[in-house]
Design a protein that fits this description.
- The chain is mostly helical and about 575 residues long.
- Helix content is about 35%, strand content about 10%.
- A hairpin with a 6-residue loop joins strand 8 and strand 9.
- Helix 7 packs antiparallel against helix 8.
Length: about 575
Amino acid sequence: MKKINFLYIFLFLGMIMSSCTDLTEEPFDILTTDNYFTDKNSVEAAVLRPYEHGHWCAWDGDRWMLQELTADHFVWTQKGKHGWDEGQWVRLHRHNWDFLQNQINGSWVGPYQGISQINNVLLAFNNLDFAKIGLSEADKANYSGELRTLRVWYYTWLIDFFRFVPINEDITTVNAQSTPQEVFAYMEKELKEAIPGLRKEAIPGHFSQGSAAALLVRMYLNAKVWTGVDRSADCMTVAQEIIDGKYGTFSIDTDYRGPFRSSVLGKKSPENLFEWPHARNTYELGWMYSAFHHYKSNSILDTDGWNGYNGIHLTPSRDLDGKIYNYSLGKPYEKYADGDYRKRNYEVIDGDGNYEGFFLVGPQYEFDRKKGYGYDASNPVTGSEEWSGKQLIFVDQVGRFSEKPNGRWSEGSGVTTGEENSGVRLVKFGPLSHSHGLFMNNSVAEIRLAEVYYSLAECKYKAGDKVTAAKLLDTVRKRNFPVSIWAAQSYEVNIAKLTDQEFIDEWGREFLGEHRRRTDLIRWGRFAEAWWDKEQDKTDKDYEIFPIPSRIVNSNPMIKQTTRGWE
């Protein structure tokens, strides 16, 4: 009888999920398919484990940092004595990384760990009599299809970052690298075979037909960069099929906050094709809260005593004199128009925990715990480092303002010259109010219908159909503005406004912080450009592809360095 070694099995919301901060694998036991798979719950348990690992890779781990901290929207500045961290954030921001960088190594190891988990379970399914435990062939097709789709999701990351990567389906075999064309063809085949057996209903934490088809859209949109072959026609076909409802019923949320606040509404947004569920003390998005927020963030955000370590913020829009930088890229906060609902300062606005705004910017005040929402204007939050005893004011600038005109003020504005109030903070993904039982309960959208609309619009735009592109973009964008100013913001009304630069800016506004900015810049040929505290890329190496990590090359003679300049 075939024996399968199952790792890391933990309960999540009546199923199985857990935190993934410790990657040491410890088998609880050696179990056969007969004595482990006894019912639907045990099958769910095995299926959900590689999902949980995927969430960690994408949102608590290295993928987010390599996608966003190497691009023009986010930076982890050194703030006085905090945040130097051996210069790793400086290297990412300025494109000076090497093949020893931990985030690059983790971005290879993490996906392959998830792929191995998937291969393990799929092998078990091949030897399992589903009917014996009360499951149908349709159930088997759905579970197997989910795992095959999730495996492709891992490969979208690997091909994007490294191009030449092994295709692994056998847990006992280590393969040599395949070409990007071979990897892409494998991914496409897996999705096309899996989609018909998947359910159409989008359930949080699971792939369905709609989200699997959206992976095809993502692949086709980036195919020319990844493989050298333009697949725009296929991208448009599948995107339109999703919009038309072929793979399930989805619609653009009419509220700009909708895709990011399932826990407030108590239901999934109709826009979310795939979202990661969270629950306090069960599975938490702790890293996003900690890395983005100030040492005294609990006072502002009502987070049950949870404070941040004040790392990541938006790249600054303004120089030390308050003037907007003249770079074409970056300046994310000022790329939002005045009047855009998203540009408001984050605030809980009623007794149900509803909120407005995606940012913390300007003077900060204590959460009004007596009222249960809003801020107490009589109690300003004070700093704890450079601005100790003075009101904390988040500025869209980076510089040692507290030392002006002496000290390190003369060093100017750069990754190493931040202080505790530097930078606008993103609150797009929460945290939500602890007083209303919502802290760490918000879902995070991994794939939204908005991405499908924007991908189709990009293909139309590049094909010369600017009118259709404008209409598609406006279908999503109109929710961000009051009716009174929408005409001035509409691309359909102001078609000349939709330029190449405006399109890449609009990708950035809609998907700010959704771990895709690097990929979008590369597809538009903009990743090598200069932006705040980052010069134009050197020509000695290929910075659009990460080098194969040295630890991987040194440990496996079958893996060869394939990135130009790192051979």
